[in-house]
Amino acid sequence: MSVALDGVNGTRRSSDQAEQFVIRSIIDGGFPVGSELPPERTLAHRLGVGRPALREALQRLERDGWLTLRQGHPAQVNDYWAQGNLYTLVNLVQAGELPENLIVHLLELRAVLAPAFISQAVVRQPARVVALLADWTALSERGEEYAAFDWTLQKKTAIISGNPLFALILNSFDPVYVSLATRYFQRSECRLASRRFYQELMDAAMERDDVRAAQVVRLAMIESLRLWREEGSEETSVRETVSVQ
Predict the structure, then answer these.
(1) What CATH number corresponds to the domain at position 40?
(2) Which domain-ending residue is among 65, 95, 125?
(3) 23 near 61, Cβ under 8 Å?
(4) Structural domain of residue 81, as residue ranges?
(5) Where are the alpha helices (DSSP H) in 125-187?
(6) 181 with 141, same domain?
(7) How many of the other CB atoms lie within 10 Å of CB of 139?
(8) pLDDT tens digits, one per residue of 61-89
(9) In a domain? residue 73
(10) Residue spans of the chain under pLDDT 50
(11) I need a labelling partner for 146 at 20 to 30 A (CA). Which of 57, 62, 124, 196 fits?
C-alpha cells in the first residue's frame, strides 16, 4: 500500500523535511503499520527532494525504528511501539502533540526510574540534593515556575546519581516535559502535593536516608500519575457535557 504525498517546502534541510513528513504520516495513519512506502523515486518526486536526501532520511528512520529498508523493494512501516527504540521516543516527543496514553506511559516510566536515580543521588551527594531543594519554599503559585523547578530537580539528581543513562533518558523528554508540567501545575492540588514531596525528600536527604528517599519519590510519582489521570477524566467529562448541550 502506498500513500500519495504533497510537496514539502521550508528552510530546513530536505532530508530533515522528508524524515519529519514520513514520521508524521506514520503517526497519523497515512502510512499504516505494515504498509509499504511508495518507491524511492516516486516518493522523492512527490516530496520535492532529491533521492540522496530521501535516502539519508530513510536510513535515519530505519535506525530510529520506524522503517525496515529492503533492497530492491519499498521500505516497510514498522510497528514502532514493538520495534522502536529510544530514538523513536525522541521522535514522538519532537513531533508535537502527544496522545494521552503516551503521556500516561511516560509518567509510569518516571515512577519506575525516579526513585532509583534520586535515591542514588542521596547516597552519593546528599548535600547537593538538599541544595537543589532548598529554594522550593520561594516558589510562587505560577505553574511555569513549578514546572521549571521540578524538571531541574529531576535532571540534576539524575546527573548526581552517577549513572549517565538516567540523564540521557530524561534529556529525551526536554522538548515536552516543561509544557506538560506547566499544564499539570496549574491545579492547586498538584502544587500542594509537590510541596509536600519536596519537603519530605529534603528531610530524607538531610538524614542521608536513601531508603526513605526512594519511598518518598515512589509515592509522589504515584500521586502525580493519579492526579494527571484525574485531570484527564475531568476534561473528558467536560467535553462530553458540551457535546450533549
Answers:
(1) 1.10.10.10
(2) 95
(3) yes
(4) 14-95
(5) 126-133, 143-160, 164-171, 174-184
(6) yes
(7) 17
(8) 999 999 999 888 899 999 998 998 888 88
(9) yes
(10) 1-11, 236-245
(11) 124
